From TrEMBL:
The keyword S-adenosyl-L-methionine does not apply. Converts the preformed base xanthine, a product of nucleic acid breakdown, to xanthosine 5'-monophosphate (XMP), so it can be reused for RNA or DNA synthesis. It comes from Paenibacillus rigui. It catalyses: XMP + diphosphate = xanthine + 5-phospho-alpha-D-ribose 1-diphosphate. InterPro entries: PRTase-like, PRTase_dom, Pur/Pyrimidine_PRTase, Xanthine_PRibTrfase. This is Xanthine phosphoribosyltransferase. One of its GO terms (molecular function) is xanthine phosphoribosyltransferase activity. The gene is xpt. Homodimer. Its main location: cytoplasm. Belongs to the purine/pyrimidine phosphoribosyltransferase family. Xpt subfamily. GO terms for biological process: purine ribonucleoside salvage; xanthine metabolic process; XMP salvage. Pathway: Purine metabolism; XMP biosynthesis via salvage pathway; XMP from xanthine: step 1/1. It is found in: Cytoplasm.
Amino acid sequence: MKLLQDTVRREGIVLNDQVLKVDAFLNHQIDPAFMLAVGKQFADLFAEEAITKVVTIESSGIAPAMMTAMQLQVPLLFARKHKSLTLTSDIYTETVYSYTKQVSNEITVSKKFLHPTDNVLIIDDFLANGEAAFGLARIVEQAEARVAGIGIVIEKSFQPGRQKLLDAGYRVESLVRIASLEKGQVTFVENNVM
Ligand code: G4P
Ligand code: NA
Ligand code: NA
């Protein structure tokens, strides 16, 4: 199925050699039928993993994570980017630096919702340097839960995130892998899942 590649080609806008704008179907306007297909694909890929919870970061991770959680019939938990009003003793916190946006975000998750028995699937919209995925993984590990894998909608394979996550021992499944955004063109890595 080449649905995601076709959607990226049709609706994606190459802003520069580093950044692909996907406001038409993923980061601003969301196509629910398309997102359902994304969720089914992740659920199939991780079907053997006995996932107990899907974890992402607000805001753009929530839509694909929600569809995945629905298919797997487990809860979706999203890390918040703003300090919550809850006592800090009740939350896990990690700092995530964005190279793309050149800002650091504190991400937080309530201790109530992650337990050592959890087997977690991390989902995110983009993988660039891997900072967001590592931040989420560190939060899961603070809770002494297990990271079963990381599911990414769009991987920019020319950036180092995938290799860093693989080197750290995580299973990474990206639905499309972009080899290059040079000359205003999207070039895919071969053998894309979607
Ligand atoms: P990393 O986590 O892999 O290191 O990525 P990075 O810091 O570079 O990404 C920071 C933010 O920028 C994330 O969104 C990520 O989804 C987004 N991003 C990275 N590369 C691209 C790209 O090529 N196109 C688009 N559209 N977004 C990209 P965020 O800050 O968490 O924002 P939100 O949209 O989830 O609210
Ligand atoms: Na994101
Ligand atoms: Na984003």
